[in-house]
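TA notes. Do not distribute before section.
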Amino acid sequence: MAQIKKAEVRQAILDAAYKLFSQKGYSATNISNIARAANVAPANVYVYFRSKLEVLFCVYEPWLTAQIEDLERSLKGIRDPRQRLRKIIKTFWRDIPSAENGFANNMMQAIATTDRREGYSPNLRLGVEEQAARLLERCIPGLGRDNCRELANIIMMAFDGYTLNFHLKGGAICPQKQVALFSEILLNARLEAKRPGNRGRSTKAGFSARANGKATIAR
């Protein structure tokens, strides 16, 4: 007879996993640890979740979604495109990597030790990139959606690096200067694309040209 799943048991497992991942990290946490903290048998964890990776995703997805929702709410009160852009980059490169003592590093640990055979899916990552692309397009519409998708991918790749750096270097975070520099490069690319002599040229070409030059950092 199949065991009846109970919502409170599932939530107890997730709460225990969240606490252990936060304290010990994904790699140092196992199903037995989670089961003990949730006051259930290890076999019961597998009634609700196929693997430790699935447990992590069920904890990490709402956590990361909440971070992005907070960003979107904060952007509604910022009208200046420069400040909006800096807020986006700061969130992905400084705020989320350092949030809750580097909780995002749990996903870095998981990805480094798993593959699709163990149930890994890129859907969450791709969804966040698409959200980031939409936010970027509102700040720098001259670059277009395709370029903003490329930029979102770059920002997320850097996000991985800053997340690992926070973990490996004892809480190191992205310098504000790098946030400002990258923001200015992107804004200068938009201005380049709008210049009369460049209208009709590829926006991507304009972006590349400005990216290879110097950006003025507003202080």
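Switch to the second chain here.
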Amino acid sequence: MNTTERFFKISGTEYERYARAAWQRYINAPSRAEASLAAVADIKVERVLDIGCGAGHELIPFILHRRAWGVGLDVVPETGRAGFELFGTIAPQARVNFVRGAAEALPFRDGHFDVVVCRLALPYMENDRALAEMARVIRRGGALLLKIHHAVYYLRKIANGLSNRDGLSMVHAVRVLLAGSIYYSTNRQPRTRLTGGETFQTRSLLRRKLSPLGMLIESELPDSNSATPSFVIRKSA
């Protein structure tokens, strides 16, 4: 069982339900698609990769409005099942494909994509390997649209756990905060039985990790907030 499957432990039916619900939320919030297009308006976008894709809804604006070829990647066995069906309802001729794989070992050649999207999936990955792989497959001058879980997200989870008397939720949040604190201070992400594999990220931590990869945080997307920041990251030309 791979990283995301270990931490989510969801059945195929649950995964498809989650993917379809996320797709519908995206359709119901057109400002998200508009923000993605605006973030890369100056880039010629022909190939887009969505990591941790669900049904691939993040690919919609690029496929429909930029006529790009889209690839959705996820680790679960059901990858693409809901995505192919849903794209068939809105764009039967869409150039879209789905691949089962892990961000830590992307099955694509160097510089293959103009844009890579990864939203709220990085916390569950081996961050250094995943970020290096994302940078590798983005062409020079291309962009990464990245949304993360900040430490604030888990502090709020503890507060909600106290209010709801949800001990398991609190324990989980404490473990992630411990892992993230170790990662932030030592530059090494712990993945032990005590800490688990999930971690938070911060802007300064990302800057430290991305700079050697030729990647620079350029701006934030409109849906960015203190708990789940959203970044527009560029690869040097």
